[in-house]
Amino acid sequence: MNPNELKILLQSISDGSLSVADGIERLRTLPFEDVGVAMIDHHRELRQGTPEVILGESKSAGQIFTIVEKMAEKGSNILVTRINREKAEPLLARFPDGSFDAESRTFCLEQKPLEFATRGKILVICAGTSDIPVAREASVTARMLGNEVVEIVDVGVAGIHRLLARGDQLREAAVIIVVAGMEGALPSVVGGLVAVPVIAVPTSVGYGAAFGGVAALLGMLNSCASGITVVNIDNGFGAAYAATRINRLTSP
Amino acid sequence: MNPNELKILLQSISDGSLSVADGIERLRTLPFEDVGVAMIDHHRELRQGTPEVILGESKSAGQIFTIVEKMAEKGSNILVTRINREKAEPLLARFPDGSFDAESRTFCLEQKPLEFATRGKILVICAGTSDIPVAREASVTARMLGNEVVEIVDVGVAGIHRLLARGDQLREAAVIIVVAGMEGALPSVVGGLVAVPVIAVPTSVGYGAAFGGVAALLGMLNSCASGITVVNIDNGFGAAYAATRINRLTSP
Amino acid sequence: MNPNELKILLQSISDGSLSVADGIERLRTLPFEDVGVAMIDHHRELRQGTPEVILGESKSAGQIFTIVEKMAEKGSNILVTRINREKAEPLLARFPDGSFDAESRTFCLEQKPLEFATRGKILVICAGTSDIPVAREASVTARMLGNEVVEIVDVGVAGIHRLLARGDQLREAAVIIVVAGMEGALPSVVGGLVAVPVIAVPTSVGYGAAFGGVAALLGMLNSCASGITVVNIDNGFGAAYAATRINRLTSP
Amino acid sequence: MNPNELKILLQSISDGSLSVADGIERLRTLPFEDVGVAMIDHHRELRQGTPEVILGESKSAGQIFTIVEKMAEKGSNILVTRINREKAEPLLARFPDGSFDAESRTFCLEQKPLEFATRGKILVICAGTSDIPVAREASVTARMLGNEVVEIVDVGVAGIHRLLARGDQLREAAVIIVVAGMEGALPSVVGGLVAVPVIAVPTSVGYGAAFGGVAALLGMLNSCASGITVVNIDNGFGAAYAATRINRLTSP
Amino acid sequence: MNPNELKILLQSISDGSLSVADGIERLRTLPFEDVGVAMIDHHRELRQGTPEVILGESKSAGQIFTIVEKMAEKGSNILVTRINREKAEPLLARFPDGSFDAESRTFCLEQKPLEFATRGKILVICAGTSDIPVAREASVTARMLGNEVVEIVDVGVAGIHRLLARGDQLREAAVIIVVAGMEGALPSVVGGLVAVPVIAVPTSVGYGAAFGGVAALLGMLNSCASGITVVNIDNGFGAAYAATRINRLTSP
Amino acid sequence: MNPNELKILLQSISDGSLSVADGIERLRTLPFEDVGVAMIDHHRELRQGTPEVILGESKSAGQIFTIVEKMAEKGSNILVTRINREKAEPLLARFPDGSFDAESRTFCLEQKPLEFATRGKILVICAGTSDIPVAREASVTARMLGNEVVEIVDVGVAGIHRLLARGDQLREAAVIIVVAGMEGALPSVVGGLVAVPVIAVPTSVGYGAAFGGVAALLGMLNSCASGITVVNIDNGFGAAYAATRINRLTSP
Amino acid sequence: MNPNELKILLQSISDGSLSVADGIERLRTLPFEDVGVAMIDHHRELRQGTPEVILGESKSAGQIFTIVEKMAEKGSNILVTRINREKAEPLLARFPDGSFDAESRTFCLEQKPLEFATRGKILVICAGTSDIPVAREASVTARMLGNEVVEIVDVGVAGIHRLLARGDQLREAAVIIVVAGMEGALPSVVGGLVAVPVIAVPTSVGYGAAFGGVAALLGMLNSCASGITVVNIDNGFGAAYAATRINRLTSP
Amino acid sequence: MNPNELKILLQSISDGSLSVADGIERLRTLPFEDVGVAMIDHHRELRQGTPEVILGESKSAGQIFTIVEKMAEKGSNILVTRINREKAEPLLARFPDGSFDAESRTFCLEQKPLEFATRGKILVICAGTSDIPVAREASVTARMLGNEVVEIVDVGVAGIHRLLARGDQLREAAVIIVVAGMEGALPSVVGGLVAVPVIAVPTSVGYGAAFGGVAALLGMLNSCASGITVVNIDNGFGAAYAATRINRLTSP
Question: What is the pTM of this model?
Answer without folding.
Answer: 0.84
